[in-house]
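User: Reviewer 2 asked us to show a designed sequence for the structure in our supplementary figure. I'm pasting the structure tokens here. Could you produce the per-position amino acids so we can include them in the response letter?
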């Protein structure tokens, strides 16, 4: 059920997804209508045509390029007497084939259970009408309820195991931090060239590369050494564009990508030079920023728009392009921008040099004495904060690294005004750098600190 202008592209993608899942396409049926039929999805007349086409093709399964409701899927299966798979189930199947990590396998099993739970009926469907009401439940309904109860129990077990794996991942991340091995996650929406970039950076071909969006469905890890330093690269599952993230399978991609971002030290936010900066790029960058990851913006496919372009169009200006990125991603003004071509292998050394700089900046620690000398030079009157939300700063210290976190000891136990935080962050960057890494600033009232100290002394 496709708009005419998108028919060819959507069918080509669905054929490739089916091929990836190990299914051969033997026939295609397209319907143009404003909205799906709520009962059968295709309508009565089209359903008869579909039954005839399905029989003539001797097909085993029907794949629908949309998300079906449980009743729609049941009606189609009853009409065709065959298995019906919607787009979400197809993508979850591909995800299951490509999942290699323990967490990835559990996540996809959980998604499949939650999606298929309202669709469960199986071999007991012929007995569903035998029961109804208290004391008259038939064996089919009883078995169906039993199956659903077992599925819900399995869902609860999977969630507990995923929570345990999350704790283990945090422990491993702390261990890697002690061993000085940075983890670098490649993040971006589908088909921007993350897998190609990973293969080019590491000199391997472990990541799956395909022109069809969404073929990387689990994180691909690669440990490599560059200039005597170890790096662990993660190619995260692609995050889909536009409304397709409403599908459970695409939501699973988002969940997995975010989890691997949170497990990383540095995120390479990969942009498509042809497409430019999109709202989704800003969303992905926001995930990395809010989770405290350092960020490097990597503009891939620069050979298609830069001075080497071959389409006869005017080459893009690198400085102007970077200005556009800065305007679209204002909250990532601290992130360096690197222009590369993964397929041509151009400017990849620049990525490693920037990685080395950003990773060292992330671990930088400023002595308290130096911080307080810096504090004396800051004119807080320029911060533009409402009078009632102004605070008097007694002293300042850096509490932690990765990301750099600073604590202000002030006269008020209040949340710092956004303008105040932003002003102080800019002053810290001007004085000390911290290229590519977010800065966290916290406030503590000195009176509370002294009170806590006195209690401990007692």
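Assistant: Here is a per-position design you can include in the supplement:
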């Amino acid at each position: 059920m496709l708009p005419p202008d998108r028919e060819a592209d959507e069918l080509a993608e669905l054929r490739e997804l089916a091929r990836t899942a190990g299914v051969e396409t033997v026939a295609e049926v397209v319907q143009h209508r404003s909205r799906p039929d709520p009962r059968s999805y295709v309508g009565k007349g089209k359903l008869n045509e579909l039954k005839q086409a399905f029989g003539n093709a001797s097909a085993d399964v029907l794949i629908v390029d949309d998300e079906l409701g449980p009743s729609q899927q049941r009606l189609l299966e009853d009409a065709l007497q065959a298995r019906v798979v919607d787009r979400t189930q197809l993508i979850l199947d591909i995800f299951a084939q490509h999942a290699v990590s323990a967490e990835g396998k559990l996540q996809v099993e959980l998604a499949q259970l939650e999606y298929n739970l309202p669709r469960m009926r199986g071999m007991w469907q012929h007995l569903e009408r035998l029961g109804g009401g208290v004391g008259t439940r038939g064996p089919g309904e009883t078995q169906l309820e039993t199956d659903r109860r077992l599925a819900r129990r399995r869902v609860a077990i999977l969630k507990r195991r995923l929570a345990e794996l999350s704790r283990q991942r945090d422990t491993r991340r702390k261990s890697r931090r002690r061993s000085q091995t940075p983890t670098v996650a490649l993040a971006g929406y589908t088909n921007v060239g993350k897998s190609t970039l990973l293969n080019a950076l590491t000199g391997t071909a472990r990541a799956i590369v395909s022109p069809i969006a969404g073929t990387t469905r689990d994180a691909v890890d690669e440990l490599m050494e560059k200039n005597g330093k170890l790096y662990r690269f993660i190619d995260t599952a692609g995050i889909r564009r536009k409304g397709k993230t409403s599908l459970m399978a695409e939501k699973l991609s988002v969940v997995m990508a975010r989890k691997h971002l949170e497990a990383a030290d540095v995120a390479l936010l990969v942009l498509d030079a042809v497409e430019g900066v999109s709202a989704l790029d800003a969303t992905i960058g926001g995930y990395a920023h809010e989770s405290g990851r350092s960020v490097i913006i990597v503009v891939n496919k620069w050979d298609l728009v830069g001075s080497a372009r071959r389409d006869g169009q005017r080459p893009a200006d690198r400085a102007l392009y970077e200005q556009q990125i800065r305007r679209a991603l204002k909250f990532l003004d601290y992130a360096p921008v690197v222009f590369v071509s993964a397929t041509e292998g151009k400017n990849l050394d620049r990525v490693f040099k920037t990685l080395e700089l950003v990773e060292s900046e992330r671990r930088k620690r400023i002595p308290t004495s130096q911080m307080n000398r810096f504090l004396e030079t800051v004119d807080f009157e320029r911060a533009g904060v409402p009078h009632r939300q102004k605070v008097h700063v007694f002293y300042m210290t850096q509490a932690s690294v990765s990301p750099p976190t600073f604590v202000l000891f002030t006269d008020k136990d209040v949340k710092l005004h956004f303008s105040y935080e932003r002003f102080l962050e800019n002053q810290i960057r001007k004085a000390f750098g911290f290229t590519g890494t977010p800065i966290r600033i916290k406030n503590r009232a000195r009176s509370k600190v002294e009170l806590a100290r006195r209690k401990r002394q007692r």
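For the response letter, you might also mention the following. Residues 180-360 form a domain with the Rossmann fold fold (CATH 3.40.50.300). The chain has four domains: 4-98, 100-179, 180-360, 368-457.
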